[in-house]
Every structure is written in C-alpha cells, then in structure tokens.
Write a structure and sequence with these properties.
The protein is α+β, with helices and mostly antiparallel strands. It has twelve helices and twelve strands. It has a five-stranded antiparallel beta sheet with strand order 2-1-5-4-3, with helices on both faces. The longest helix has about 55 residues. The radius of gyration is 42 Å and the shape is elongated.
C-alpha cells in the first residue's frame, strides 16, 4: 500500500503546475521506495539475517515477484542518494548512487554506522537529527556535512521517514540525501561577491575622503604661498644696497621655490579632478596658429635662463573647436619638462601644430635634451615618476605633469605618445579632434 500510495503522489508531482509539485514528487519516490523495500526485505528475511534477526521482522506476503523486483529497481536506480538504517543507526541497505558518491562498494557500506559517513563538523548535528527522527518519526531537509572515503566532505540535505514491520513496529528509516554542493558553492560565490562589494565600497569611501583631504590642503595652502610669493617678489624689486649677495640669493631661492610649490598645488588639484572626473572642459572655436602664438609668448620668459632656442613650426591656420585653456596646460607641462632636460648651452625646443590624420590636429613639443632610457619608457605616464629624479629641476618636478597631460588629452578625445632616443632628445606628440 505504501508503494501504491507513493506512486500516486509521485504522479501528482510530475505536473509542475500544481502546488508543491517538487515536494510531492520527492515524497512519492520515498514512499514508493519504502514500500518496495518492505516487500523486498520481507522476501530476503531467510537469506539475510542482518535484516531480520535483531528486529524479528515477519515476511510480508506478496502475490507477485515482479512487484518486488520493480520496487527494488526503483530504489537501486534512483539518482538520489538513499540508505536504509535501523534504530541503532546501522546502515542496512543503500542504493548504487549512495555507494558511488561516498566512494565505497555496497558491501563496505552495509553494516557501518551512519556516523562513519558524517563529517566531523556536523557530528553533533547528525546526532541531534538522529534523535529527532527516533522521537518524531520524521526529518526533513536538515543540512549535514558528509564525509567520503577519500576524506573530502560535501553538504547535503537529509530527509527520513519510518519503516514499519507488518505488526506496526518501527524497524528503521529510509533516508534520502540530496547533494547540494553546487548550491552551496553558488552561495559561497555570492557571499564572496558581496564581501568584495563591501570592500570596494569602503575603498571608494577612503578614496573620496583622500580626495577631499587633498583638495582642502591644496586650497588652504594657496593662501600662505600667495603671500610668500608676493613679498619675495617685492623684495626682489626694491633697491638692494643694504643686502649682500647671499641675502639676494636667498630671496631669489624663496621666490623660485614658491613658484615651484604653487605649481605643485595646481598639479595636485588637477590630478584629483581628473581622477574624480570633475575637471571642467569648455570648448570654443579658435584658430590654431593664433593659439600657438599665445603659447610662444607665454613660454618665452622660461627660456631666458638657459638661453634656449624656442621655435614655432606651425603649418596650419585652420580653426578647431576644443578647450584652449586645457590645451595650454598641456603645452606648459611638456615645455617645462623639456626645459629641465635640454643642455645649458645650445638647448633647443620646437613646438608645432599641423594637420593630423582624419579630422584632427597633430601637436608636438620636441627637444634636444638627454632623451629617455629604453627601460624607463613604460613609466613615463605614471604618477610621481620622473625621468631622472637625481636631476635638479627648476620647473615642476612633482611627477604629475605628464599624467595631467595624458588625462587632459584623453578627455578631449585625443591621444598622446612620445618618441625618444638617449642622448638625442625627445618628442611628445598629441592629436586632438577638430
């Protein structure tokens, strides 16, 4: 009757549209297997004393050997792990799926304690589950970690119902184990993703705090720097009759380093704006040759100390639409960089604008300086990197200049690159869409 009842429930569960179809199908399989097992155990009573002696199970009569075989095949062929245990926790029978999963042959499983197949981390839970079954007669979807022959462990959901003899005495249970390793792994991946998300959010908060700190420091530093620059400039302009050469040199040094600090503050501000995508770009239409004349005029004073030859080779007069202020910053950074590395005597810097590929303008800044070593070329556009940190630099030197150039050019839709040969100089190119 249990088997017939189980088949009916399983048939009901085959319809995925009815409520609780999956649970009904699982229960039907268990009941069918249990009924079949009772019939099968009864038929084996004379041949297998381990199934009968301790419990005095009397054989159930069956009108057909075919029914017994059918139920046995259903139990044996089930893809779900199944085992039959007595009230002492001894495994009386198992199906092939169970034996295969645990890495044993069936004869090595039968007669063993169910605790032999329980992982150490779930031993207490397994004992509680076993006692619950003996008291209530039922266990459903309890998570237990199991141990295979090779000592690997896996998570499973265990469900059990009772098996009775034909006198109504409980003789054991049929247990179904669902291996949920894939589900557990999926949860583990999701948990790891959630943990990483939390870490990323924390890093973003830290970056935001760091950027705010940099911006505050840069802004507050501008006030004292402006005053130092102002008064050192005044000292440079008044008559020096009462000042000796060392004092004059000190005033000049103060002024030069104030300019350098001022540039550093601007660089820090610009880098943070580029990192946070808050730098503003205002495009306007202008003539390229007129813009290049402005660059020449603003940068000429920087050439005086080294007496650098400053050349404009611009060959285009066509208009373009871009951000003049930001392009001017790119030129200033590249020219300052070139000034530091051209020779004291015979230095030459050439700037140029000409028609580029497609609808673009190609700009470049070329110098006859020391050039860049091959092994250092990959680091040129990295933060804080300088071609030669031992070289005394008058302009800039923060290591931000080329990073800012790259950020501005790319935000304007262009690209920047360079060519250099040690001892022969360097040329920085950048193309900007018209």
């Amino acid at each position: 009757m249990i088997g017939i009842f189980g088949l009916a429930i399983a048939a009901y569960g085959l319809d995925t549209h009815v409520p609780f179809s999956s649970q009904a199908f699982s229960l039907g399989i268990v009941c069918t297997a249990s009924g079949g097992l009772v019939v099968w155990l009864s038929s084996r009573r004379q041949n297998n004393p381990i199934l009968t002696k301790p419990y005095g199970v009397e054989s159930q009569r069956t009108d057909s050997k075919t029914d017994s075989t059918k139920y046995k095949n259903l139990y044996e062929g089930s893809p779900i792990l199944q085992r039959t245990v007595n009230t002492d926790g001894i495994i009386l029978e198992c199906n092939q799926a169970y034996a295969k999963n645990f890495g044993y042959s069936k004869d090595k499983v039968i007669g063993k304690s169910l605790f032999d197949h329980t992982a150490e981390k779930s031993m207490d839970d397994m004992r509680k589950t076993f006692e619950t079954w003996k008291k209530s007669g039922r266990v459903e979807n309890v998570e237990i970690w199991f141990k295979r022959k090779d000592d690997t462990i896996f998570p499973g959901l265990i469900s059990a119902n009772n098996i009775y003899d034909d006198k109504g005495k409980m003789i054991g249970s049929n247990t179904v184990i669902r291996d949920v390793s894939e589900v557990y792994q999926a949860h583990k991946v999701l948990d790891e993703h959630e943990r990483q998300k939390i870490q990323i959010d924390e890093l973003k908060k830290m970056d935001s705090t760091k950027e705010e700190f940099y911006m505050i420091v840069a802004k507050e530093s501008q006030i004292p720097v402006s005053l130092i620059k102002k008064y050192s400039q005044i000292l440079n302009e008044i008559p020096h009759g009462n000042l000796d050469s060392k004092q004059l040199e000190a005033i000049t040094e103060i002024y030069d380093n104030t300019i350098r600090l001022e540039q550093l503050i601007r660089d820090i501000t610009n880098v943070q704006k580029l990192n946070s995508n808050t730098m503003e770009f205002k495009k306007e239409k202008f003539n390229v040759d007129g813009f290049m004349n402005e660059v020449i005029e603003s940068c000429k004073p920087m050439m005086k100390e080294k007496k650098i030859e400053f050349v404009d080779s611009t060959s285009t007069k066509k208009p373009m639409t871009s951000d003049k202020i930001r392009l001017n910053e790119v030129f200033h950074n590249l020219i300052q960089n070139a000034i530091d590395f051209v020779p004291t005597n015979g230095g030459r810097i050439e700037i140029c604008a000409k028609e580029g590929e497609g609808n673009s303008v190609l700009f470049y800044v070329k110098d006859n300086g020391m050039g860049i070593l091959e092994k250092r070329k990959d680091f040129i556009f990295k933060k804080f990197y300088q071609v030669d940190i031992s070289f005394k630099r008058k302009y800039g030197g923060s290591g931000f200049g080329l990073v800012i150039c790259k950020g501005i050019v790319e935000n304007l839709g262009g690209k920047i690159w360079f060519e250099s040969k040690e001892g022969e100089g360097t040329t920085f190119y950048f193309s900007i869409p018209k």
